[in-house]
Structure formats: structure tokens, C-alpha cells
Amino acid sequence: xxxxxxxxxxxxxxxxxxxxxxxxxxxxxxxxxxxxxxxxxxxxxxxxxxxxxxxxxxxxxxxxxxxxxxxxxxxxxxxxxxxxxxxxxxxxxxxxxxxxxxxxxxxxxxxxxxxxxxxxxxxxxxxxxxxxxxxxxxxxxxxxxxxxxxxxxxxxxxxxxxxxxxxxxxxxxxxxxxxxxxxxxxxxxxxxxxxxxxxxxxxxxxxxxxxxxxxxxxxxxxxxxxxxxxxxxxxxxxxxxxxxxxxxxxxxxxxxxxxxxxxxxxxxxxxxxxxxxxxxxxxxxxxxxxxxxxxxxxxxxxxxxxxxxxxxxxxxxxxxxxxxxxxxxxxxxxxxxxxxxxxxxxxxxxxxxxxxxxxxxxxxxxxxxxxxxxxxxxxxxxxxxxxxxxxxxxxxxxxxxxxxxxxxxxxxxxxxxxxxxxxxxxxxxxxxxxxxxxxxxxxxxxxxxxxxxxxxxxxxxxxxxxxxxxxxxxxxxxxxxxxxxxxxxxxxxxxxxxxxxxxxxxxxxxxxxxxxxxxxxxxxxxxxxxxxxxxxxxxxxxxxxxxxxxxxxxxxxxxxxxxxxxxxxxxxxxxxxxxxxxxxxxxxxxxxxxxxxxxxxxxxxxxxxxxxxxxxxxxxxxxxxxxxxxxxxxxxxxxxxxxxxxxxxxxxxxxxxxxxxxxxxxxxxxxxxxxxxxxxxxxxxxxxxxxxxxxxxxxxxxxxxxxxxxxxxxxxxxxxxxxxxxxxxxxxxxxxxxxxxxxxxxxxxxxxxxxxxxxxxxxxxxxxxxxxxxxxxx
Amino acid sequence: xxxxxxxxxxxxxxxxxxxxxxxxxxxxxxxxxxxxxxxxxxxxxxxxxxxxxxxxxxxxxxxxxxxxxxxxxxxxxxxxxxxxxxxxxxxxxxxxxxxxxxxxxxxxxxxxxxxxxxxxxxxxxxxxxxxxxxxxxxxxxxxxxxxxxxxxxxxxxxxxxxxxxxxxxxxxxxxxxxxxxxxxxxxxxxxxxxxxxxxxxxxxxxxxxxxxxxxxxxxxxxxxxxxxxxxxxxxxxxxxxxxxxxxxxxxxxxxxxxxxxxxxxxxxxxxxxxxxxxxxxxxxxxxxxxxx
Lengths: 778, 292
Fold this sequence. Notes:
The structure holds 2 protein chains of 2 kinds.
Chain A: H1 19-23, E1 39-45, E2 51-57, H2 59-63, E3 67-71, E4 92-93, E5 99-105, H3 108-117, E6 119-124, H4 131-134, E7 168-172, H5 175-181, E8 184-192, E9 204-210, E10 213-218, H6 223-234, E11 241-244, H7 260-271, E12 275-278, H8 281-287, E13 290-291, E14 294-302, E15 308-320, H9 329-339, E16 348-356, E17 362-363, H10 370-387, H11 392-399, E18 406-407, H12 411-415, E19 421-423, H13 429-440, H14 443-446, E20 455-457, E21 460-472, E22 479-484, E23 490-494, H15 503-515, E24 522-526, H16 542-570, E25 577-580, E26 583-586, E27 589-595, H17 596-603, E28 607-611, E29 627-628, E30 630-642, E31 648-658, H18 665-684, E32 719-724, H19 741-758, H20 769-775
Parallel strand pairs in A: 1-12, 10-11, 13-17, 15-16, 19-29, 23-24, 31-32
Antiparallel strand pairs in A: 1-5, 2-4, 2-6, 3-5, 7-16, 8-14, 9-10, 9-12, 14-15, 18-19, 20-21, 21-30, 22-23, 22-28, 25-26, 26-27, 30-31
Helix pairs in contact in A: 6-7, 9-10, 10-19, 15-16, 18-19
Chain B: E1 5-7, H1 12-22, E2 26-29, H2 35-40, E3 48-51, E4 61-63, E5 69-72, H3 77-81, H4 91-98, H5 103-108, H6 111-116, H7 124-130, E6 134-138, E7 143-147, E8 152-154, E9 157-158, E10 165-171, E11 178-186, E12 194-204, E13 211-219, E14 226-227, H8 229-235, H9 242-255, H10 266-290
């Protein structure tokens, strides 16, 4: 059911809209902003994981020449940024690294010197870092006023479906009955590790006041949330605040808002000068959020004929010190995702809890929930296939979800009601992905059977493994404006952020295709809260499925207006018109035409605008049920394990991803590479090491946090990126978000390949040489 | 960044006189790939930094009349990696240089800096010790030459007095039928600090079947780079076969004294010493035989 319709701009490998200015160094990132009289900020951070500030003396620091303002818990408003438990600057610190004071000075060096002059007396409190320890009845409480470390909702973040004891459940059918029907039951506990997003540029923000108006330049993927939180924290009308995010730098989930913008705005207000804060790499590691660590118990029941009768999961997640990111949102993506949907199974039960600990915030990161759940599910599925002696590709083809299977918005797990809809016809691409990776990787030739390596050469054993995965392709309410200009060009106004992923380019392609303009005729203004209409920013692969969808609707609105005028001029009905190459034509009569520029002049001003329809309005024609959007993928990995050193080499990755429609295939392939690299790093090299007695991060640098880079990945033809196009019901030209499915498939495919090579299941989540040697009993 | 006085003397005499004035308040700058990281990270706060980068000749290497290799302390790792003379008998130096950090670090990092920084994992140290290198240490008052294996006293510390500079490293001409290998394993395939580094240099008899002399030097598994003397002793005068390699590697592993740290657990390092030593002996023996 591939797309056959030919487009002139969509689907083309056009150069990125932001390439030239970035390559020439003309793009002004937040870190490039320099303003006269601008002050620099440094933060004093707590050395303790949990402590009460008994006293704080800033007099010596204030006396240092060049210091202009210092914020502490004594002189900032008593507000809870982002609906957190904590105050903006709190009298209690909750993790080692929490901001205790903010100093604005004329140079960074002076601000840093001032930090040493601030005298703080702490009363150290008991702390807890491990989720399971934090669940014990006598565990230290991260927020004593909440009475428990198990999140179960607050006024600002209600979780009505969560039990008061902190457990949230999602159940379909009857798992007990399902397990009773099974011939085999496979179970296991899998841990998945933390991971740091490691943006190429740690976060930064600049604030400047002009009268009672605040401008905030923020490197964030959610400018809209920064804007709203600034208004709330500062008690200001939204109209007086402008948040601008001209060129954001790779977030991978990590560029969520935090309270830093509010602190910098206060410093700017108090000093009457522009103020900038830019985190160092070390601060990025210790004081910005990271992927949650999970412990998942999974159980699967299968019949000898390969039917899955029941799936059950119980998940404990470490949420860190507060709830700035919506608690439960992340594990809920495991529930509505790999644990309940990836395989057709009538009986599923998922239970999860999010536990607060005295570690830095955990939060969304690429593939969140789906990757962690998937690493467990995809290994259990392999175990099940082995038990009944089926080929792992064949077993997945038989059982993977397909059109008409249940689907749900993940947020409903938390809020209810649990009104299951379905997944659309596009989901049948999952089988296509599997077939394509199997063919491209020559699976049939290479797979020698269970626990039979492809090749053994001395201490080196080669194995092959497969995994499938899914992640929601967020369909959010979103709006956009398309403003037509007198020369027939168009400007798009959107709250979506260009964060390196290529959204600006894809949006220009979609709008140009819709209006019948050339690619270069469309310019996109992104993420400026004073200019762009409402939109949530970039989350859950929603840039395409939500942001560009709104832009397409707005372009269609503009086109309708242009057609109304053109129809009048050409004396035809609007239905008889079509547009291409900057002109509006009467269908079938190319000589009857009018340039779009001329229509724009006749109209005085054409403004197209649109808000995405609500998701419940998208109904499958055949079944009458609401369609939910997911992107799916399949990956095959070939690895070589050195049983002497424990070394793991990933030799080849073949990975197929369903993107609905590749608006720009090059960008799709780049996104596949990006997320595959993240997935490799997660299990192979990247490891956040936290001192179990103090909660201090021991390796907050790129020397000892081994970030996966392009040099560590398979090269050229050994990285096979495949995109599959089964159009999605509402996406622009059928496109949907796919930037997170690689994250959900590479790690389990590697795990399964390791098993094929050495016959050992890696249940700890780190496939480092020392863990592999340990597993081999050395 | 912390404030400090910066000097860039043009002569060694000037540099030594500055050093004798500031002594422990001064830090010496060569390539800066370790020093600047430490200053920025505030692990050190020197009152002054004395750069050796303008001193002529310090970044040159050449073969002296009697054939000894003389390597100026400021010779960059890149230059070592790309010196055609540093192959064959000296090949172990090339192998260490080639695996040190990343391309961009090798462009500025120096052999003297790598040694004086005295990280237990320094890649150049095992290779040079394996070739019996000596270090020339100079102060305003005196000059002395010590075996490089006696240069290190602990992680980050050496025998250098506060007014002394390491000016060059001298490597005696290796005997005929000598070859060496340096193998390391880091947390990742590329650009990692060694979790274990092993240099092996073997001198075979003219028939190539007996090992006349051997050095086995381990990095990153003790407070300083260390010779595995038991392992060396077991190789001398013996025919090298797989059974011997196995025993020698076990001996080297037993001699090593690694610690647990964020980069690796001690047990894993000990296991790796065995594996890497085996591979290094095999490779050195192969190269030495090929040279006959």
C-alpha cells in the first residue's frame, strides 16, 4: 500500500533550509548572543544530596567588584516552577548539584570567584538514590511534605488513575486465564540504565527587559512551556513575555524547560541589564535531566503453535528528585507501547510506579518508555520463540500488531478514561519493516539457529539478532499561520523548533507542495511566542505529526482563499482549480491560469491559519473507531563478542523505519542514524556512575562518560537505513514522526545478537566488556 | 578560569631560572592537553605557567652519533606517529603514539607532557620503558640522567624536583632481532584512556627460536607504569610457545596491582592484563621473527 502519487517537492532530497547559515557560521545560536552590558551567571550548587540550608551569607561575594546581583532562597519569590514540589531556590536541597545561589557578574570569572565567597551552612539530611530502596517504608523522604516517595498525583499534575500506594495499572483481558492457557511461561527481570542526552551544546538562556516587557532567548525544545512558566513564576501576562528559540541545539529529550530561565529573568530585572547563563558540560551532566532507570519484571505465556496468550509487566522507575517532567508519562509509554500493543495478545497487564529519589531529575529522552519496555519485551519474545523452536523473525511476523489492533493515547493511562481505539492501516508497515530488514541483512543465510553463532574464530564469536519496536508519533493540538506575501512567497509561523532534526526544511517542503510554490518560496519562522501561534514545541516525535500537520492545514486554508479569488477571475468553480509552479490553473486547461503573486495582490492580504483537529475526530472509516498514531520499526544487528576481553563489536545494523511518507528522505536517514547511535550508546558505552553513598555523579565529563560517536558505529554500507512508507491517516502527505523508533530497536537487537553469539542473556542493561566477561563467568 | 602569570621563555636557561624562582608555584606547559583541563577544572591553581613551546629544538627528535634516539620532550605525538624512523626496532613507540587519544589531541600533546603528567594510563610510558629509555632531567644547578622506569613515583607524581625539567628522552639502539608491540584496551574502541596497556619488547637469537631478552611493561594497572619482572624472567632464554605465553601472561596478571575506579573494576583489569599480554607477546614475537 505504498504511496504512488507523485509530488514535486515532498519526497525530494532537497538541501536543508538552515544548512548554509549554519555551515557559514552565520546562524546565531543562543551562545553567540552578545549584548552591551550583558552579565554572566554562575550557580552555586549543593555538594549534598539532601540538606537543609541553615544559613547562607552572601555579603563577601556581594562586595566583590563586578558582582551585580545574587539570588538565594532568602530573596526569590516563593514559587514552584513547572509545578514542582520545590521552590525556585529552596531552603532544602534535594540532590547533589542543586542550585543554591545564582550570581550575576560582569564576567564569568568574577561570577565564579564570587561562588567561593558565599558561605553556606548545611544540615545534612538522610538521602536515598535507588528506587527500590526509596520504596521501603522507612526510607528517607525526598519531599517529606508529600508523605511518600511514590508519586501518585498532585494538584498541578493530577494522576486520577493512580492508586494511592503509587501503582498505576493498565489491564486488558485476564492474564491469569491467559497464563493458564499457555504451554510455556517465560519470565525475567530486566534492568535498563540511565542515559544522558549529551546535547552538543549544554543549555543556555539570555534574558533582557525593556520596560515591563521581557525577552528570553532560550535553547529549548519547548519554548511554549518556558513562556507559560515564566508568566506564572513572574506573575506577568503572557503578552509581555517573548520567548525566542532561533536555533536550538540537539535535545534528544534533554532540552526540556527548567527553572533557569526564571532565575535569569529575575537577575536581569534586578540589575537592569541583559543577563546570560550557559551551563558547562559538567553542569549539563549533574544538573539537567536524564533517561530514567527502570527495573522491569516481565512474563509471557505462549502456546506451542506460537500464539501469545498473556503478557504481564511490572515496572519500577527512578524519577529523581522532582516532577518537572510529567511523572508517569514516561513509563506510561511502555504501557501503551511495547508492553500492551506491540504483539497481538488478548490478555495484558501492566503495572508501574515512579519513585522519587535524591538524584537529579530523570525525564524524557529519545524513545522514552518504548525503549526501556522494548529492551525487556524483545528479549522475552526471543526467549519465547526459542522455547517453541521458532525463527525469531518468523515468530515476530506471526504475532506483531497490525491494522485494527488496539491503540490508546498514553496520557489516558494516567488520566483515563481507558477508551481503546485502534491503530490505522499504516501499522501494517511493521511486517514490511521486518521483511525488508530480513532480506537486506540476508537473515536466512546468516541465522544458524538458536544459540548457534554465525561464525567462531578463536575467542571471537559472531551473532545475529532481531528486534521490533514502536513509539507514539505524538498527535498534539497545534496551530500554524501561513502568511502570503505580495510576490507570491509565503511565511510560515509555527511554535515548532528547529533543533537540528530538519523540521524547518520538511515544513517548508510541505507548505510549498500544498500551495504549489517552489521550495525556496517558503520561509519558516519558528518558536517565537510573540509571533507564532500556539503549539507545544517538540516532543514525542511530534514535529512532523503535529507541527507540520498544522502548517499543512494552514497552507490549505490559504490555498482556499487564493482559489476563491482565482475562481472569480478565471470564471470557474474552486473545485476546478489546481496549483503548481507558482500559478493557479484550471484543471486540464493549463492556458487558463493566474500567477499566485497576482492573486495575493488582488487579495491585499491572505492569511491562512489552522488548529489541528482533536485526535478523537480522526475515525477509521471501516471500523468507526478512533485511530491512534504510532511509528514502528525493525532492526537486525550483527555483533562480534570477544570472549577473552568481553569486547563487543557491532559489525552491521540493518534498520527499517516506518515514516508514513519521507518528506525528505535524507533527513529521515539522518534521524535513523542519530537514534540508532543513541540506542547503541545506551547499552554499549554510556554509563552514568553515581556514588552509592553520596549521590554524587562521578563521571560528569565526556572523558569518562563514553558517548557513542559516529566513529564507534558501523561504517557506510554496514549501516543500512531503510524507510518504509505506509501513509498515516492524518499526517501531512501521510508522514509521521519516526525519530525515536531506532532507539527502541537497536539495543534489543544487539542483546539478542549477543545471545546468539555466546548463549547468554544480558539482563543488566549494560553490555560493556566487563559485564560481558562477568556474564561469561570470568 | 583561574588567573595566573604566563611566561614563554625563548631559551632553556631562561625557563630554568623562572622555574627555580617559582618552583612548586609554577606549572610547566608543553602541549597543554592535560594541564589546561586541570586548570579549568580547578584541580590545580598554579601561580604561574611557564610555557616551553618557544624553546628552539625542544620539539625535535634525532639519532645521536652513537645511534641513540634522542627525543626532545616537546616532540608531539603526531610527529612521533609520522616519523618513518620510529618503526622496526622502535616500532613499539609508534604503536603507542598511534593509539594515544584522538587525532586532534595527538597534534598538540607531547611525549614529555605525557610522561610528566604521570597518569598510570599514559600510553608512551610502557613503550619507552620497554625500550630501556632514559630521561634527561635538568635544573639551573645540575643535570642528571635516570632510567625512565624509575621516573614515576605514583599517580601524577615523578622524581622531578620542583626546579627540574624533563628535556629529552634517550633510547639506546635496540639489539638486532628486536621488535615490540603496544596493545591497549579502553572503554571504547577509539579515543579512550587505556583501561589496560601492555608493551612487550622481545630480542630473539639469530635463529629466531629463543628469546634472548624481554621486557613486559604494564600501564593503568598500578600506581605507576610497571615492569612485570616475573613475566620477563620467564621469557628469557626460552623458546616462545603458546604454553609459555599462557604462563607468562598469567604471571603478568598476578603481578599487576590495579584499583577499582570509574573507568573499570580491578578484577576486569587483571583479567585483561592476561589477555592483552598474550596478544602483545604473540605480536612482538611475530614481528621479531619477520625481521630476521
